[in-house]
Amino acid sequence: MTDAAELRGRTQELLAAHPPATTDRLDFLKARFDAGLAWVHYPEGLGGLGAPRSLQAVVDAELEAAGAPDNDPRRIGIGLGMAAPTILGFGTEEQKRRFLRPLWVGEEVWCQLFSEPGAGSDLAALGTRAVRDDGGPSRSSEAESGGDWVVNGQKVWTSSAHVARWAILIARTDPDVPKHRGITYFICDMTDPGVEVRPLRQITGEAEFNEVFLTDVRIPDSHRLGEVGDGWRVAQTTLMNERVSIGGMRIPREGGMIGPVSKTWRERPELRTHDLHQRLLTLWVEAEVARLTGERLRQQLVAGQPGPEGSGLKLAFARLNQEISGLEVELLGEEGLLYEDWTMRRPELVDFTGRDAGYRYLRSKGNSIEGGTNEVLLNIVAERVLGLPAEPRTDKDVAWKDLAR
């Protein structure tokens, strides 16, 4: 079994063969993936070595000390935290080898086509349709011979759709069964005909999110993940990983939202009051507890199969971000009401803590919606972590086509 000493040796060999100071960033990342040091708990040949997940920290520490480049989760976080574990868990060997390497090195950006205007919190009610067409010629740039799926519908709140090459997509393939069945999971080429991305301007002024219209989009059956009609089970892997990737992001001590307000507190003593001091101390401790809990949860994960505990972590992330950003605005007083720039822009990065205090305050409002609303996550924690009785669901056994909409 691979141990820490062996991983250090492998990392040193990588650094010797590809010195960070003289190696192109992308070439270094590709070499790291091929050496099995991208995510060490993944199988050999897919960026890993089948090692315990906790040993990733050994590799990361060696590379950081050497000044080696890394990928940027702010740009490719959906691919890293959501698409990759789902492909690993349900993809064919061909799909794994085609998608995981360019995903990890950042050559291909991914987005998530899940939520719809009429299916947000109740995602299983989605209405985007995928119909099998065994006779039509495929228009996909990477299609193989065989049947296609023709997809029509609308998705919304799609982060990074304007820069994405691929999307993870769930669509209804059988309207005659209850809503949690009859859903199938696909990989969608965002450059194919019929895919239209429109910006959604947010309260921050920018359009980080998008709405996506799918009109007669052809997806080859070779880009299906999992069995036909089993898409809800596949999507659960995506959603549970999403909550861990949002709530349990790897950050240094005093990283994230607590960093800027702590820095202001130290550098601007004239702004301090006793009440704000007590609140800042409380939030600092809670932020550190959440950070360490996230680290522990990541180490407990079996590759691609996190449990419902990630929902609790994501709940804490949203609450803390909103309380900390509110405290920061209050601390700054009139300065906290200023806003750097409300110009319409379409950023390539998803950055919760960037720019100024006003941006952080406004952006944090979305934290309790994205990746699962607080209300939905509270239900998950209540039922699947605490074992409390489930809420009555009268539509559980009703065919999707018969549901009121």
UniProtKB/TrEMBL annotation:
Residues 27-107 form the Acyl-CoA dehydrogenase/oxidase N-terminal domain. Gene3D superfamilies: Acyl-CoA dehydrogenase/oxidase, N-terminal domain, Butyryl-CoA Dehydrogenase, subunit A, domain 2, Butyryl-CoA Dehydrogenase, subunit A, domain 3. It holds the Pfam family Acyl-CoA_dh_1. The keyword Oxidoreductase applies. Residues 229-386 form the Acyl-CoA dehydrogenase/oxidase C-terminal domain. Residues 111-217 form the Acyl-CoA oxidase/dehydrogenase middle domain. This is Acyl-CoA dehydrogenase. Belongs to the acyl-CoA dehydrogenase family. One of its GO terms (cellular component) is plasma membrane. The lineage of its organism: Bacteria, Bacillati, Actinomycetota, Actinomycetes, Kitasatosporales. Keywords: FAD, Flavoprotein, Oxidoreductase. Its cofactor is FAD. GO terms for molecular function: flavin adenine dinucleotide binding; oxidoreductase activity, acting on the CH-CH group of donors.
